[in-house]
Amino acid sequence: MANSGVIKKRIVCPKCNETTISKLYTSVNVTNHPELREYVMNESLFKWKCHTCGYSANLTYPVLYNDMKKRFMIYLIPRIDHFQLADKALEEDFKNLKHINKRIVPDFNTFKEKIFIFESGLDDMAVELTKLAISKIVAKNQGVDESEIKEGYLSMYNTENNTMGFTYFIGEERSPYVQSARLEIYGKSKSVVNELAVKDKKLKGFIRIDREWAENILYRYKRGRQVAKNSSKW
Ligand SMILES: [Zn+2]
Description:
Elements: E1 5-12, E2 19-29, H1 35-41, E3 47-49, E4 56-58, E5 63-67, E6 72-76, H2 88-94, E7 101-105, H3 108-119, H4 124-142, E8 149-158, E9 163-170, E10 175-182, H5 183-196, H6 198-202, H7 211-231
Parallel strand pairs: 2-5, 6-7
Antiparallel strand pairs: 1-2, 3-4, 5-6, 8-9, 9-10
The structure holds zinc ion.
The site of zinc ion has 8 residues, from loops.
């Protein structure tokens, strides 16, 4: 599947009931079609417009994003909650591709974040762990429970200033809050990931790397340190 895939679909307008035949991208190869990257990032690729009345809406459907040069593939599957993609045919298509980061994501914001992470040459597992560690600091500083931090995304990466920044959304009103962090924290996260996520790094299929995944790694890391502490008493 080297090229971008397009299907034609009849969509009935929810406003005027007329049918429009629209082109939908089911896969996007930005190495062969670099212009599509921008359409993804500004979401215009997913905009649908009724030819009759002009009503427009955002479409939500599975899309595979493929950057062969930077060696990553992101599969947006709305609301997916599995850790691994259970699509045998697709796995079969891509099983011989080695050293490619393959991810599944459940929503648009995560989709764009993963593209940003991999384009920046970062390890998304380490970014996820860093984001979790920083979110705990934000919760403490803001005097809110950790569960009040609903979402967070990498929003800035600057090697000159040695910082990365995350935008978190806090509470029911989802107020945005930006917190920056020194890259040393990312470096530390990376060494933890390299030690504890060996198995996940070897997986050949599409996997979901998110907060839940990072919490599991953090739990194992803390437990490991506890064991080391206890055994050193002997
Ligand atoms: Zn219409």
